[in-house]
Amino acid sequence: MFGNKKSNSGLTFVAQGTKLSGESHFAGEALIGGEIFGKISSSGKITIEPDGFVDGELSCNELKVSGYFKGKLKCDKLNITGTGTVEGEVACESMEIFEGGQFIGMRVREEVALLNTLDASKSIEQNATPNKNSDIEGEFQAN
């Protein structure tokens, strides 16, 4: 399944026709030609090749998409090539989309993405209370 994998400077290759699911961590650069489902993290660059597909939560330094990414993404640099599609929620420092590339979803600040993750564990009742100073029934004020 995996090609060369060295300590910090290795290259991981997920070949076309390979399907992985679960939690994955790549120590170095990774090329994805197959399909990965789940939570993925990398301290390096990840490239989703034209036939590659990633569905899940991805955290990496740099992501180049020539295939398809769907889910939540947190990275420093995002590059969507002319054949690439990114669908979902993206928190990144810089984004570059080439002609023909597609971005479907929303871009959020990293702080907002972190807060949304933390707030997901709280119930709605803890986050909102009725506004007692309001004349309008049903109006809520966030704490």
Q: Can you characterise this structure?
A:
The protein is mainly beta. The protein is 10% helix and 55% strand. It contains 2 helices and 11 strands; from the N terminus they run βββββββββααββ. The strands form 2 sheets. Strands 1, 2, 3, 4, 5, 6, 7, 8 and 9 form a 9-stranded parallel β-sheet that branches. Strands 10-11 form a two-stranded antiparallel sheet. The longest helix is centred in the C-terminal third of the chain and has 10 residues, at 110-119. The radius of gyration is 19 Å and the shape is globular. The chain starts with 10 loop residues before the first strand and ends with a strand. The relative contact order is 0.10. The model is unreliable at 1-7 and 127-143 (pLDDT under 50).
**Alpha plus pi helix count:** 2
Which regions have little confidence, pLDDT < 50, spanning 5+ residues?
1-7, 127-143
Indicate the radius of gyration in whole angstroms: 19 Å
Shape: globular
Percent helix, as a range, is under 10%
Distance between the termini: 49 Å
Share of β-strand residues: over 45%
Oligomer: single chain
Order of helices and strands: EEEEEEEEEHHEE
Give the total of beta strands.
Answer: 11
> Given the helix and strand composition, which structural class is it?
mainly beta
